[in-house]
Amino acid sequence: MAYETVLFERSDGVVTITLNRPETLNAFNDTMIRETTDAFKQCGKDPSVRCVVLTGAGRGFSSGQDLADVQKRGDDFSIAEHLRQGYHRLILEMVRLEKPIIAAINGVAAGAGFGIALATDIRIASDKASFILAFSRVGLIPDSGTNWFLPRIIGQARAYELAITADRLPADQALAWGVVNRVVPHDELMPTVQEFAARLAQGASLAYGLTKRTMYRAWEQSLEEALGYEAYLQETAARSHDYREGVQAFLEKRAPRFQGR
Ligand code: T3D
Question: Which atom, in ligand 1's list, is nearest to the CA of 59?
Answer without folding.
Answer: 30
